[in-house]
Amino acid sequence: MEALMNIDRRWLFLVVFVIVFGILIHPIGLPIVIGPDAQKAYDYVQGLPAGSVVWLGIEFNQSSKGELLPMVLAVANQLFKNNDKIVVSGMWQYGTELVQPYIENIAQKYGKQYGVDWINLGWRPGNATFLHQATQDLNAACAGVDHTGQPLSSFPIMQSVKALTPDYFKLAIVFDAGTPGLPDAYIPIVYEPLHLPLLDGTIQMSVQENKNYLQAGQIVAMIPGSAGAAQYEKLVGVPGQALASQDPLSLGALFVTLLVILGNIGYFATRGKKA
Amino acid sequence: MRKEVPMIITALSALAAVFGNFFWLGHHWGVMDLLDNWFNRSFAFAALIGVINLSIIHINAIRRRKENWVYSLILLIAMYGYAILGLIQTTDGPQASWIYNNVLTPLDSTVFALLAFYITSASYRAFRARTVEATVLLVTAIVVMLGVAPIGAVLFTDKISSLAQWLLNYANAGTYRAFSIAGSLGAMATALRITLGLERAHLGGAQ
Questions:
Q1: Which of A117, A244, B5, B129 is a Cys-bridge partner for A112, taking CB atoms 3.0 to 4.6 Å apart?
Q2: Could you write out the DSSP letters of every residue in A241-258?
Q3: Which chain B residue lies closest to A258 (C-alpha atoms)?
Q4: For residue A58, what are the contacts with CB-CB under 8 A and spacing of at least 6?
């Protein structure tokens, strides 16, 4: 029984490796149950009038790509499918560049034109200062150029979008992995003074913190973590990386549970002997 | 004067922040925008001090041929090399982007991927039902983990998801709010003490 408590961790590493890679190569397709949070988020976006302008705040970088990029892509698919317009920007360096090629592909799929149906304003430093300025004058906040340095005045979409306020945007969707993000920037600067509806897509680790804002009504809905992203992909009908990652995630969780049970069986079986 | 001047600056900054945040006139005059800009500039100077400090430590390590001094050399080359590249072509430049996408990004992903292995090993070794509290924690963790993953619904119907949601929405959210409010009150008390000059630890030396 003592052996149950002292399995060499290299064996554990090997099993985790086999589970993750084996299932990624041969998915078993566990059923995905749509949770209330993802459903609410989907319904909210679906309920926007066609042609709405939506802000996508890319507040993450490579380290959270696994969880948040699938959400961005599913949401972009939904928005373009509904003929909504997208303005991409963010306060995390490299975040907007990370999503650029993916959104470009989705835009092409739906026949959307850059500068007319969507635009990438790029990474903007300054955190709260940038966001605050964006709520007053988007052109000035972005120094008058998009992510490639092209003048904003040359893009038709920017003729009808002057500031990050409810006058121009129907919704701001924030994909956030920390600071700057939803709690410290978007809620105090965008929601509280202006009441522009916010929707949050966040990593599993931040779900609990951000759920407080959902319960308080400061965000309209939330896409929670990798599981939420998978549910959203299923709702939009664009299976992607999040759905593919649910099988390894599930079996990993099951393996950890099994290990905890084994470890505790060993612990209780040997406890009396040691005493 | 070494203590008084920083204390006066601290108190004035705090009062300006209160004025900018809580008074209409402060908001109208854009005091917070000004402070935000100052904060960004101060942050840049703090980063500069960090770079200087790091350089001194690692240059000394190289000069004295301390153990693993080669790593210090690599650090300095990477830090100054990337900074110079960024200054020449901005961080969106082709070489700077290439380094970011092909060096930093894979390393970042690798480190995060390793967490899966370490978390598995750590949970196996640490999660023991030694006490009632530990047992509650252990059972809660497993319920939430299986409730969030799709396998939970497959094995235990959607009851486990509902239980996990209940734990997250009520037990966890309530506790989280209690901690947040307590933390915020503590931060306010500390801020007030610093503003009034009662707390001087940030100025260095004994109080």
A1: A117
A2: HHHHHHHHHHHHHHHHHH
A3: B124
A4: A72, A88, A89, A90, A92, A95, A96, A98, A99, A175
Residue B4 resides in a domain:
yes
Other Cβ atoms less than 10 A from the Cβ of A136: the count is: 14
Q: What is the ipTM of this complex?
A: 0.77
Look at residue B98 and tell me if it is in a domain.
Answer: no
Q: Enter the DSSP assignment of A265.
A: H
Q: Could you tell me the residue ranges of all domains in chain A? A: 36-240
- Token pair for residue A105? 């592909």
Q: How far apart are CA B16 and CA B22, in angstroms?
A: 10
Give the per-residue pLDDT at A274. Answer: 59
Q: For residue A205, give how far its alpha carbon lies from the nearest alpha carbon of chain B (Å).
A: 12
Residue B106 covered by a domain: no
Quick check: A117 and A157 in contact, CB under 8 A?
A: yes
Q: Is B185 on the interface with A (CB under 8 A)?
A: no
Please list the rounded mean pLDDT of every run of 10 residues in chain A (275 residues). 82 92 87 91 97 97 90 98 97 90 97 97 87 92 92 95 97 95 93 95 91 92 94 96 91 92 90 67
Q: How many helices (H) and strands (E) does chain B have?
A: 10, 0
Interface test with B, best of A206, A247, A260, A271 (most B CBs within 10 A): A260
Please check whether residue B89 touches A, CB under 8 A: no
For the record, the structure tokens of A84 come out as: 């909504």
Give the helix ranges, DSSP H, for A114-164: 128-134, 138-141
Domain that holds residue B181: 127-194
**Domain stop point among B26, B44, B67:** B67
Return the CATH architecture of domain A36-240. 3-Layer(aba) Sandwich (3.40)
Q: B140 to chain A, minimum CA–CA distance in Å? A: 12
Supply A127's token pair: 């955190």
Q: Which of A62, A184, A211 to mutate to test binding with chain B, by most B CBs within 10 Å of its CB?
A: A62
Report the C-alpha gap between B198 and B8 in whole angstroms: 12
Instruction: Return the CA Rg of chain A.
Output: 22
Among A232, A234, A227, CA closest to A72 = A232
Instruction: List the A221-224 sheet strands across, edge first.
Output: A118-123, A85-90, A53-59, A171-176, A198-202, A221-224
Q: A20–B32: do the CB atoms touch at under 8 Å?
A: no
User: Cβ atoms within 10 A of the Cβ of B91, count?
Assistant: 17
Count of the separate structural domains present in chain B: 2
Flag whether residue B124 sits within 8 Å of chain A, measured between CB atoms: yes
Tokens representing residue B201 in the block: 């630890």
Q: Which of residues 69-88 of B touch A (CB under 8 A)?
A: none
